[in-house]
Amino acid sequence: MGRATYIRKRLLLSIFVLFGVTIVIFGMVHFLPGDPAMILLGERATTQNIAALREQLGLNRSLPEQYWMFVSGLVQGQMGTSLQFRQPVRDMVVSRVPISIGLTVYAMGLAAVVTFIFGLLAAANKGRWADQVIRIVFLFILTTPNFWFGILLILVLSLGLKWFPVAGFGATFQEHIWYLFLPALTLGLQLASVLIRNLRSQVIYTGRSDFVRTARAKGLPERLVLVRHVLRNALLSTVTIFGLQFGFLVGGALVIETVFAVPGMGQLLFTSITSRDYPVVQAIVVVSAVLVIIVNLVVDLSYSFLDPRVTYE
Amino acid sequence: MSDTVLKQRAVPNVAPVLQLGFTMRLQKIGLNVTLLAGLALLAVVLLVALCAPLLTPYDPILQKLDEGFQPPLSPNHVLGTDNFGRDVWSRIVWSTRLDLQIGLISVLFPFIFGSLVGIATGYLGGRLDTFFMRIVDVLMAFPFLILVVAIMSILGPGLGNLYIAFGLVGWIPYARISRGETLAARNLEYVQAARTIGATTPRIMLRHILPNVIGPGLVYVFTGMVLAILIGATLSYLGLGPQPPTPEWGAMIAAGRQFLLQAWWLTALPGFALLILGVALSLIGDGLADKR
User: Fold this and answer.
1) Angstroms from A120 CA to nearest CA on chain B
2) What is the pLDDT of residues B31-62, one digit of tens each?
3) pLDDT surpassing 70 at residue B6
4) Can you tell me the distance from the alpha carbon of B71 to that of B56, in angstroms, rounded to the nearest whole number?
């Protein structure tokens, strides 16, 4: 299969997945136990109120009709009205999306830096104490619940040493970077602990290959061998994992936002869940799934350009 | 130069021989250092969970309002008390049972269902395979945590609903793993032999393929348990898990959050308990993976 066919197939898969995502979200609201209208109105609702709301939400129509209403609304950017705030959901969500994406990208940047430093350090000292220390420290970080890790950082670095703000977001770009440092670090360290393991083993594995031995044999300085030959090849698999972890990172970002009071989608999501604000929850789930679909698509496509050896199965 | 060479040669005489002996003896009985450390740590956690009534001097939900906010190492309370005067040590110990239970049940059903789906789709192929793999593609598009949260938001908070949410989405990795293994195994000689002597398809799948492909999935169970416990704690931190006054580590962290300045121990200590259990399970997972 050639590259063009591969890209076409991959795009088709994304569209199919997007379609599936809308089915799942639609199904979740309609097939799981509980009448949405009743949940929305609470226990004190009268029968008339429920009937009126069912009418308003279109719950008396046939399922295909309801699904059509839901999807055509999504395509036009209509996501309904928030029940708690009586505002269009779109306006509430759209302004928060860039904040959550910004936090995620920030975390990815920090993760990349940390991974580079400690992954290479571990690989270069394979089996020695530096390698063991890095392995154990990042094993701990990997198994630490990130909301707790965030709170500990606040406790020590913000409240104790007063190096960083406790919570919030700031007003200017520089302030955003400053305020978001701890949340991004919390997420980034956890992502890095997955990536470091991979980079370490990839660097060690690549270091054993013939072309690296040739590079050393022809007298290339060790630094150049590492950068030009080992790293370039080792990074490919690490980048793939980077992409695969995106979903986890988005989920983590939404939780971390609540810890650091960052006004992103996460904060809105969790207040909406407590108040059973259905349309908002639905919208945020759609947005985050779409983000993951886009990132996976970009990773898969860019991978086919980065590595000429990729076979298109 | 010659000195260092001599030193390097001189040292190994005693210590490494013993060390080699220890590692080799471990390997003989199917263990390695990582696995052993993990098992030992898990044994301690299990023991704490089992002996909870013996280890705790107080009822974990008993409130004594006049004894609130005692710091750790107080005369009567080793790890201090919370805002309601409840003994933090007792609460942490009792919640070990609950968090172990969350880890086990959240993984058990997804493991069984996912593995069976993987074996069936991998062995039978065709439309069944396409159908399930498309479901997997779609569910993989959701961030796991957000999907679980969304399901919980519809089902409502609580432990039972948490298990249902995990069951609905947690089977995917097991299905992928066992499907891959089954695809590799389906044309091996022992499967062909079973087919030749006329074994039925269900019999081949359950008696011949399953025992041979279940290994990697079992190894992943420990990673899955860490994930389940972390996500379970996250959900109860967000108020979607077991409801108060049930002692649960995530919920304890959330409850202590508002007293961070006055009483850091309410937030910090339950997290360490989570960390110990997580590290124990991760070490076992790593140790098992190293063995293969």
Assistant:
1) 21
2) 788 889 999 999 999 998 888 788 877 777 77
3) no
4) 17
Cβ atoms of B274 and A134 closer than 8 Å: no
Angstrom distance (rounded) from CA A105 to CA B105? 35
DSSP state of A309: T
Question: Is residue A81 classed as helix, strand or coil in its secondary structure?
Answer: strand
Q: Dihedral, CA atoms, A174, A245, A209, A131, nearest 10 degrees?
A: 70
Probe site for chain A from B33, B148, B154, B272 (most A CB atoms < 10 A): B154
Q: Do A285 and B279 touch (CB under 8 A)?
A: no
Nearest to A297 by CA among A75, A107, A71, A15: A15
For A152, which of B149, B226, B268 is closest by C-beta distance?
B268
Restricting to B residues 251-280, those with a Cβ less than 8 Å away from any Cβ of A are 253, 257, 260-261, 264, 267-268, 271, 274-275, 278-279
Contact B92, B252 (CB under 8 A): yes
Do residues B187 and B205 lie in contact, with contact meaning Cβ atoms separated by under 8 Å?
no
Question: ipTM score of the complex?
Answer: 0.81
Please tell me the distance from the alpha carbon of residue B5 to that of residue B165, in angstroms, as a whole number.
61
Q: Specify the amino acid at residue B182.
A: T
Contact A243, A295 (CB under 8 A): yes
List the one residue out of B151, B117, B146 whose CA is nearest residue B134: B117
Query: Which residue blocks in B156-259 are alpha helix, DSSP H?
Result: 159-169, 172-185, 189-196, 201-203, 210-237, 249-257
For residues B173-205, b (16+ Cβ closer than 10 Å) or e, as one string?
A: bbbbbbbebbbebbeeeebeebeeeeeeeeebb
Task: Please choose, from the candidates A141, A245, A244, A115, the residue with its C-alpha nearest in 3D space to the C-alpha of residue B230.
Answer: A141
If one compares B289 and B21, the residue with the highest pLDDT of the two is B289
Record: contact A151-B226, CB cut-off 8 A: no
User: How many other C-beta atoms lie within 10 A of the C-beta of residue B159?
Assistant: 19
> Are the C-beta atoms of residues B218 and B236 closer than 8 Å to each other?
no
The type of residue at A182 is L
pLDDT in tens, B139-169: 888 888 888 888 887 788 888 888 998 998 8
- Chain-centroid distance of CA B196 in Å reads 41
